[in-house]
Design a protein that fits this description.
Elements (H helix, E strand, L loop, with lengths): L3 H10 L4 E6 L18 H13 L2 E4 L4 H8 L5 E4 L4 E3 L3 E3 L7 H14 L7 E4 L4 E4 L7 H15 L2 E5 L2 E5 L6 H11 L4 E6 L4 H14 L3 E8 L5 H5 L3 E4 H9 L3
Parallel strand pairs: 1-2, 1-10, 2-3, 10-11, 11-12
Antiparallel strand pairs: 3-4, 4-5, 6-7, 7-9, 8-9
Helix pairs in contact: 4-5, 6-7
The structure holds magnesium ion.
Length: 255
């Protein structure tokens, strides 16, 4: 599956067995100064309705599932939030593995509220089963924020994940974009899948594809959506790269 035209024709020949898994921020949406300002790329709004009707289609995000569902706003799309810990059916569902950690996250939130008075401009986003610290407004505070988040994660037994100008505290469970991809691919009886993302958490999605390929009977294509902030770890494990959401949408429009 090296040449795009080869895998594109395979996907088109058998769309019901070909899954599309897409990240949202930085992938289907240009990165915005704050999460609240992000919108679906206008070309995605044109292309996605038809794709979502023909292909099994999943949008995966670190946002709450309901937030990404309302930002994309399309039927026939499976919405996954909190990096795999939450998904939408008629309403949002939280992975049961995560529930025992909610009181610990509350405690982390309380401690952060106090500590963050010393780091003005760092924006705390409360996402129920995770806590994000956004540094886009104050990148010079990254080191201090990282130290704070690391010690909190150690003390409370939480997991710390880094992303594009964000730090995120999460429950220490093995649920991520890749484990969700594996589960959905089995449920949808997929023979192949595409995963596109722009950040470190998307490496897990790529790994999900690799796992299924190793098991056999599955082809995967991992697409890194590039920007000046693309982590080298993502680009290094991608099958191909595209330039920003526009580059991805050029590719998707061929499907
Ligand atoms: Mg992203």
């Amino acid at each position: 599956m090296s040449e795009p035209r080869d895998w594109i024709s395979t996907f088109k020949a058998e769309p019901r067995r070909s899954g599309l898994f897409l990240d949202f921020d930085g992938t289907l949406s240009a990165i915005a100064p704050t999460p609240a300002e992000a919108v679906l790329h206008p070309r995605a709004a044109e292309i996605l309705p038809d794709l979502a009707r023909r292909y099994p289609f999943c949008v995966m995000s670190g946002r709450r599932a309901a937030s990404v569902a309302s930002l994309v706003g399309l039927a026939h799309v499976h919405y996954v939030g909190l990096h795999g810990m939450e998904w939408m059916e008629d309403e949002p569902h939280i992975d049961p593995e995560v529930l025992p950690y909610l009181p610990t996250l509350d405690r982390a939130r309380e401690e952060l509220k106090d500590s963050l008075t010393k780091l003005p401009g760092v924006f705390l986003e409360n996402k129920l089963a995770s806590i994000s610290l956004h540094l886009r407004q104050v990148p010079e505070m990254e080191e201090q924020a990282l130290q704070l988040a690391e010690s909190l994660a150690d003390n409370l037994g939480l997991k710390l994940e880094r992303g594009r100008m964000t730090l995120e505290l999460r429950p220490p469970v093995d649920v991520n974009k890749g484990t969700v991809l594996i589960r959905l691919a089995a449920g949808w009886r997929l023979k192949r899948g595409l995963y596109a993302g722009d950040d470190l958490t998307d490496v897990a999605g790529f790994r999900g594809l690799r796992y299924l390929m190793k098991e056999g009977g599955f082809d995967g294509i991992a697409i890194a959506v590039l920007s000046p902030e693309t982590p080298i770890e993502l680009e290094a494990v991608a099958d191909m790269t595209v330039d920003g959401p526009d580059g991805l949408l050029d590719l998707l429009s061929q499907l």
